[in-house]
Amino acid sequence: MFKFKLHVHYLNVTHFFLEYCKNIIPFPASKPPSVAFTASLSKGITVRPQAPVKYDHVVTNWGGAYNPSTGIFTAPYGGLYSISFTLMGNPSNDVRLEAVKNGERVAMVYTAPKIHLQSSKTVHLILSKGDRIWIRNWSTSTTAILHDWKVYNAFSGILIRDF
After folding, report:
1. CATH number of the domain where residue 129 is located
2. How confident is the model at residue 22 (pLDDT cuts 50, 70, 90)?
């Protein structure tokens, strides 16, 4: 009986403390959603004209919004997102990749031939729930050859703030 009374007393004190803290510390009504992903290429690949880059080596996919089989990130919540991508083309060709939001270009990177040049871009975008972002070969006629071993070409995104 004694243990039970101590336990009940402890619960009452804890409940009182939490109620007291609610008046002092502003607790959010609910926990904000978390979305973050990073994916890279596991090997060098060839990307057809206007085709999406399918980053197959998924490092992080918190929230499951990036699909490595399509290369497309689908926003699970409306909000402000930070989207980044890096490019290292093969020295045999020049490459232009573009970040695309629902079919419209929002950013572009470029590498020149004859050198292992790297290029990157970060954009902050207001996305609605269901908006789709992907990286694709900009060219309408030339195949892009991307050089990689899980470290040079990457696609990342994170939800900064939902609304």
Report:
1. 2.60.120.40
2. low
Let me know: does 98 contact 153? Beta carbons within 8 Å.
no
- Residue whose C-alpha is closest to residue 151's, from 71, 16, 41: 41
∠ CA 68-74-78 to the nearest 5 degrees?
155
| 143 vs 133: CA distance, rounded Å | 21
Containing domain of residue 91, as a range? 32-162
In a domain, 26, yes or no: no
Asked whether residue 25 is assigned to any structural domain, the reply reads no
133 burial via Cβ count (<10 Å: 0-12, 13-18, 19+): buried
pTM of the shown model: 0.80
> Please, are residues 40 and 153 in contact by the beta-carbon 8 Å criterion?
yes
